[in-house]
Amino acid sequence: MPLLLLCRRLLLLLLLVAASHGYAAGDTNGYDSSMCLKEPMACGNVSISYPFYLSSEIKDLNGYSSSYCGYPGLAIECNDGKTMMQLDGPYKYLVKNISYGSYGNDSYGNVSLADPVVLEDRSSCPKVDHNVTIPWFSWLYFPGMSVDYLVFFLDCSFPAPIVRPPATYQLTCGNIGAGQSFVLPKDKVPEYNIYYGSLSQACNKIIEVPVLSDNSGDSEWSSDEYGQVLRQGFQLAWNESKRSANCAQCEQSNGRCGYNQEGNFIGCLCPDGREHSRNCSGSGKPFVSSTTLLLCKGGHR
């Protein structure tokens, strides 16, 4: 049999064996296993597990710098026993608790957060100076069943025909500007009216913050003690529906999903210290000896 034909058949056989073991183009020999949490990991009184990851353990993977072992947006900082998570912008939030669950092959859960500035300010009306938002690439979202919103209208004046909100919503404490200020549950904010304008037109700053859903109704705190509500924090959940088919296949084979900073799946990180393109069914790349390569190279002459 001609050498060239023999080489082609040998290489084809190796590719078939690779495919049967879950190998694919792009497999690598290994990865830095410190990327993945040795779960469960405790930071203070919070237990941290995959799909969360430590922001201090981002690595290079498949040529992508700052890659990680976990889901986009689920980075955790652990400093001096304090568990922190950064959302959109420069703001970091204290992680009060993480709950985990599973249904079939899918995992789910939520994370409870609170603004550390609010927690440290023990006054009845702590300063509220920024919106709480989630980065666009993150898999986190506000679960509708457990989160409502408070809207702060700060430093307002009411030229006609804009209508002033009821006095029960007015803030009477805290350093909140020269004008009048109000806090309303989001579902109580009046809609824009062509004849009476909008409440937002009357105020210099508007801030929307999430709270637990059973704390957003009308009560006495809306005028002078909203701090106790904000200190209870809010919840976020992670969205399994964003998981790619490759990531799902990886996790079903006992691997963990590697992502780059753009939130793209780039590899399956396996318990044996190897990284594959899709799953952990195999134990390494197919081996082609240097002798075979030399013979095949010679067969092309």
From TrEMBL:
Residues 42-102 form the Wall-associated receptor kinase galacturonan-binding domain. It comes from the Eukaryota. InterPro entries: WAK_assoc_C, WAK_GUB. GO terms for molecular function: polysaccharide binding. Residues 1-26 form the signal peptide. Pfam families: GUB_WAK_bind (PF13947), WAK_assoc (PF14380). GO terms for cellular component: membrane. It is a single-pass membrane protein. It is found in: Membrane. Its main location: membrane. Keywords: Glycoprotein, Signal. Residues 173-273 form the Wall-associated receptor kinase C-terminal domain. PANTHER family: OS01G0690200 PROTEIN, WALL-ASSOCIATED RECEPTOR KINASE GALACTURONAN-BINDING DOMAIN-CONTAINING PROTEIN. This is Wall-associated receptor kinase galacturonan-binding domain-containing protein. It comes from Zizania palustris (Northern wild rice).
